[in-house]
Amino acid sequence: MAKAKHTDRVLIAITEFSPVDVLWRAALRRIGDTQVELLALYFSEDHWQRAASLPFTREISRVSGARMEFTRQRAEQLHSEAIDRARELTRRLAAESNRTFGFEVLSSKDIDRLKHFVAGTGSILIASSPITRLPFFPLISSLDCRIELVELVRAGTAEPTEASDDDN
Amino acid sequence: MPARDGELGQQRAIDAIRFGLRLENGGNNIYVMGRHGSHRHDLAEQLAGEFAAGQPTPDDWCYVNNFAFPERPRTLRFPAGRGASFKRDMAEFIGELRLAIPAAFEGDDYRTQLKAVEAQTQKELEQEWKTLEAKAEARGIGVLQTPTGYVLAPVREGQVLGDEEFSKLPDEEREKVQKSIQELSDELQTRIERMPQLRKKHRERVKELNREVTEAAVGALLQDLKARYADIEQVGMYLDDVQANIIENSQDFHEQESPPIPFLARDPAQSFGQYEVNLLVGHEEGAVAPVVFEANPSYFNLIGKVEHRSEMGNLVTDFRLIRGGALLDANGGVLILDMHRVLTRPFVWDALKQALFAGQVRIESPGETYGFVSTTTLKPEPIPLNIKIIFVGERWLYYLLAAYDSEFSDLFKIAADFDDELPRNEDNVDAFARLVADRVRVLELRPFDRDAVARVVEERARHAEDSERLSTHMRSLEDLLTQANYWARDRDSDTVGAEDVARAIEESVRRQNRSQLKIVDAVRRNSLLIDTEGAVVGQVNGLAVISLGEHRFGHPMRITATTRLGSGKVVDIEREVELGGAIHSKGVMILSAALASRYARDVPMAVQANIVFEQSYGGVEGDSASVAEMSVLISSLSDVPIRQNIAVTGSVNQLGRVQVIGGVNEKIEGFFDVCRERGLDGSHGVVIPRDNVKHLMLREDVVSAVDAGKFNIYAVTTIDEAVNILTGVDAGERGEDGLFPEGSVNRKVEEQLIEYATKRRKFDAESGEDKSFRRSSGRQAQTDGEG
To answer: Do B441 and B534 belong to one domain?
Structure first.
């Protein structure tokens, strides 16, 4: 059972495949009526760019199975669009719930910025369980913030599970 | 005991209608012919009603959906009353279906089973993916997802290798990676291509589940319905089809995800609507067979139609929009139609014959039948037809159709001929009085007293133009009764008297006699030259009748004749200028022959005679002026003047016999009016055929004048009698010596003709043209020459 502690910042960890709306709702539940800071952290990965740097990489269509060249430009475009999509979705959810929020993009090189945002006992990081596979996760786990992993039961519902807190 | 409407004098027609109605069908339909307004329609309807009362109630007919071929709706036949029950039962069933099916699909059982199906599919999909992922992982290949697909790339220690790292790998490993990516890409592509099959398999599982759920829900609902209609095999089969169709299309009946484009959403009402019942013909149990009169027998009103409704700008239809026509409404009973209207409505006559010959009604649009339109529409199953048709129409239509349409005679074998009149005997007059009483009651008029009825009977004889007959024309009788009633009311009388009937007749004439008075006025002012005194050679007062709508009136016409030496030709000026009709021309030719046979049996007709209707600018038809024409020729030839205070009418045959003509009353009255205008002095009169005496039904003022000796009517049998009266000189009969008496009119005619013949012979001899004379004079001249 988690102990009740003071919270002054709620962080939402987003990747390109995160269910932003589910995470957002979990964050709202955590905040309740309080006016704590709400910050969306987009963890940017460069695996698309890496793959695109290889001359033989192809993108296979999900619908038809057709193969297309996977260029650096295509990887950049996908990366940029994924960030824009996440930002836009977060903006919309914030507007709907009448909340202000911050949105930051972090790459694997932004260690200091990551620590700046995440570190601190007053912070809670809400993320979906696949985040544990990301390269960031060991670093995040080592920081003294609380982490809530949201288990996706089915579309539209989520059960938060507190995976880590400062007692761990 | 009042006479029934229209029945008086129509026993023959009544018997014919009854006979036609009772005969088994097979072309034994009935044509009721008679004058318009004779109440033939009312009587036909009454008789049809009596017949229908003894007939069984016809079956009900419904159209329902044909699930296999929706464009060919099927029929269901029910005993009377059960068609409507079935329609109600099916509507109730649909209402229950609307609740039962969604309820079944919203139940926990269904949700649990659906989840299981979805979980199974999900498991299969995940299994597919995991197998591939595991295979890739084992070869050091990662599967990256993009928004639109997948990218395979080498992975070491959880990191995708970039170009730099990859180039540092040994050549052998690089080749191995590339080969693995190629193989895995092929496998991934194969799996992606297999996805539709997996989705289809999923849909089939869901569909099968839906079928099971629907079957359970529908089976219970239909069980009771099937039991209720177990005695009608056809209905049982239809209900089986309904059940199968609902089960097959169960997904249509419960809530579905909204399609991306709203108007593509399936309307559940449409889905349930296909099980509705279109009750085309319904009867109450125990009701009598129908008797239908279709006043407007258009194609659609008679045969029926398939209506359309607009959906998204397109015209669509289904079995619910099939509408029956009068043929189906009257099926099993009697349908009464106006023949003229049937013939003047496009396509109706052909369609009706087709239905009667085929013994079934096929509801289709005429445009489709005749190939005018190619729009896809319905072809409903035909409905068997068992019907009696009564056509009500004019006589001439019957005879025309019988002559020119052989199919008409095959289909309408029974003719019911409505008589226009009946003999004026004591029994019929009594019956007629009862008929008047009946019509007065039906029309809610004031009672008619004895004198009024007698006056009506007189008028009916006048209407029949025969003192020995009574007109049975009902509409004109009712008009008279109604108008007499008006005049009685106008003078605040509780009963209708003879004076009211007389006033009705007078006012009716007055409303329409403007043209008649114009002619009398024209005579008075000598615009139309008619002498009513003195005597003139070659000039006679003939009599003509003009019909203007319902009003007929007579007036005198001056006919003149001139004669001179010629080649035996009587020239009818009217015919020469094409104003004379065929019958008139025939009359002139007959009198020409009569003239020759009477006066020129032994000498050539060396005369040229011209006959003219003076101041006649319209057509002349009929032979009723031939007595006048022959008289005026005789006058011209004999140089004996004709009295101008006498007019003459009648036709004459070759032997000089005067024959009956029409409109005798109007003709006499026409001359009477002109003479009265100038002052009657007892010398005026009209010569008529003796056979027309029985037709005399003159106006009261004419009868009074005759009774007072101020006007005369002379009935004649021969042309000689007419000449006697018209000239005041004895016409003369041939004596034993073969000659007419000295000084007689006929003697003078004969002498004149002999003189002409002599002059002609002399003239021809002098001019040396004897041969040409013979040629032009024909056989008569040859005989004369040889003689």
So the answer is: no
- Residue A160 forms part of a structural domain: yes
* Minimum mean pLDDT range among A77-86, B400-409, B704-713, B777-786: B777-786
Best of B152, B161, B166 to mutate (most A CBs within 10 Å, chain A): B152
> CATH number of the domain that B437 lies in?
1.10.8.60
Same domain, B448 and B549: no
Contact between B190 and A65 using a beta-carbon 8 Å cutoff: yes
CA separation, residue B689 to residues B625, B693, B711, B719, B728 (Å) = 11, 7, 17, 10, 18
CB-count exposure of residue B55 (10 Å: 0-12, 13-18, 19+): middle
| Residue B143 touches partner A, C-beta closer than 8 Å | no
CA triplet A95, A100, A102: central angle to 5 degrees? 115
Does residue A4 sit within a domain? no
- Average of pLDDT values for B483-496? 95
Q: What pLDDT, on a 0 to 100 scale, did the predictor assign at position A45?
A: 83
Q: Are residues B636 and B753 in the same domain?
A: yes
Hunting for tokens 């129509």 — which residue is that? B10
Q: Is B318 within the bounds of a domain?
A: no
pLDDT at B300: 93
- Nearest to B73, CA basis, from B293, B478, B363, B374: B363
Same-domain status, B608 and B664: yes
Residue among B271, B624, B744, B777 flagged as catalytic:
B624
**Interface size between A and B, measured as CB pairs under 8 A:** 81
Find the domain containing B86 and state its range.
62-287
φ/ψ (deg, to 5) at B311: -135, 115
Distance from CA of A74 to the nearest CA of B (A): 10
pTM assigned to the model: 0.65
Tens of pLDDT, residues B558-600: 999 998 888 777 777 677 667 777 777 787 788 788 888 888 7
Per-residue pLDDT band for B370 (boundaries 50, 70, 90) equals low
Q: What is the ipTM of this complex?
A: 0.79
CB contact under 8 A, B181 and A135: no
Q: What is the total count of domains within chain A?
A: 1
SS (H, E, C) B101-157: HHHHHHCHHHHHHHHHHHHHHHHHHHHHHHHHHHHHHHCCEEEEECCCEEEEEEEEC
Does residue B624 have an active-site annotation?
yes
Tell which of B287, B319, B339 closes a domain: B287
